[in-house]
């Protein structure tokens, strides 16, 4: 099972690989795709959602509410912090 920090790093890596920095965003629901049950434990995808919301509160992910759902992207002002966090917890 992955730690909370590893899950946060993977969430940010997903956005980074897609190029979702600043004005380039994706649906919040996309963050919950592609996870293995063994990696998340009992809480499953609710854990991913909770940790993604925590990243929004920390200012590492920017949220953009739209009429078609919540959109998210990485905060370009936190670029160095995000990259170092990802490198610390996963092989980037």
Taken from the alpha-carbon principal axes, the silhouette is: globular
CATH superfamily: Winged helix-like DNA-binding domain superfamily/Winged helix DNA-binding domain
CATH architectural name? Orthogonal Bundle
Question: Which parts are unreliable, with pLDDT below 50 for 5 consecutive residues or more?
Answer: none
Which CATH class? Mainly Alpha
Order of helices and strands: HEHHEEH
Count of helix runs: 4
Distance from N terminus to C terminus (CA atoms, Å) equals 19 Å
The biggest beta sheet is recorded as: 3 strands, antiparallel
Which secondary-structure class do the elements indicate? alpha+beta
Strand order of the largest sheet: 1-3-2
Taking Cα atoms only, what radius of gyration do you get, to the nearest Å?
Answer: 12 Å
How many domains in all? 1
Mean pLDDT equals 94
Q: Quote the CATH topology.
A: Arc Repressor Mutant, subunit A
Instruction: Tell me the strand percentage band.
Output: 15-25%
State the gist of this model.
Helices cover about 50% and strands about 15% of the residues. By secondary structure, the protein is an alpha+beta fold.
Task: Describe, in plain words, how this protein is organized in 3D.
With 92 residues, the chain is of the alpha+beta class. It has one domain (4-89): Winged helix-like DNA-binding domain superfamily/Winged helix DNA-binding domain (Arc Repressor Mutant, subunit A, Orthogonal Bundle), CATH 1.10.10.10. The chain has four helices and three strands; from the N terminus they run αβααββα. The protein has a three-stranded antiparallel β-sheet. Strand 2 (61-66) and strand 3 (69-74) form a beta hairpin. Helix 1 packs across helix 3 and helix 1 (4-18) packs across helix 4 (79-89). The radius of gyration is 12 Å and the shape is globular. The chain starts with a helix and ends with a helix.
């Amino acid at each position: 099972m992955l730690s909370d920090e590893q899950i946060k790093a993977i969430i940010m890596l997903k956005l980074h690989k897609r190029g979702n920095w600043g004005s380039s965003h994706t649906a919040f629901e996309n963050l919950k795709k592609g996870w293995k049950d063994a990696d998340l434990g009992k809480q499953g995808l609710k854990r991913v959602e909770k940790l993604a919301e925590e990243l929004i509160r920390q200012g590492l992910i920017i949220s953009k509410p739209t009429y078609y759902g919540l959109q998210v992207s990485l905060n370009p002002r936190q670029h160095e912090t995000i990259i170092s966090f990802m490198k610390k917890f996963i092989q980037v």
